[in-house]
Amino acid sequence: MTTVLVVEDTASERDLIVGYLVEGGYKVISASNGQEALKEIEGKRPDVVITDLVMPGMSGLELCRSLKKNNETKDVPIVACTSKNQELDKLWGMKQGVNVYITKPFSREDILRAMRSVI
After folding, report:
1. Which end of the chain has fewer CB atoms at under 10 Å, N or C?
2. Is it the case that residue 107 has pLDDT exceeding 90?
3. CA–CA separation, 69 vs 25, rounded Å?
């Protein structure tokens, strides 16, 4: 079973994404910020990370850079799910290691399509 780490600081959005993934047949772990995500990853290497980009403390882009620098996580696909919807934001995200970029508001199908594209 594919394990997905969802990193989102807004509880309602995190719960929504987790719900969509569980319904889609994925095993899900979650974190409310980048630092918590790094701790979660230590014990359980997820197959995919879905992260917000705008979060207090460590941003989603900082998390991406950290994951891509680590030999154990450098190949884990990253899906950005963010309110940053400018083309420049998307290009910068891709440069930081984002594989798929979804903008908010998102649908269940957006999340599941992104998952299918990176697995």
Report:
1. N
2. yes
3. 30
Is 10:30 a contact under the CB 8 Å cutoff? Answer: no
pLDDT for the residue numbered 27: 97
The whole model's pTM is what? 0.96
CA distance 100 to 102: 7
**Sheet strands (E) in the chain:** 3-7, 27-31, 48-51, 78-82, 100-103
Beta carbons within 8 Å of 22's beta carbon, 6+ residues apart: 28
Per-domain residue ranges for the chain?
3-118
Candidates 3.40.50.2300, 3.30.559.30, 1.10.101.10, 3.60.15.10; CATH matching 3-118 = 3.40.50.2300
DSSP state of 118: H
DSSP letter for 96, please. T
Per-residue tokens: 57: 């403390």
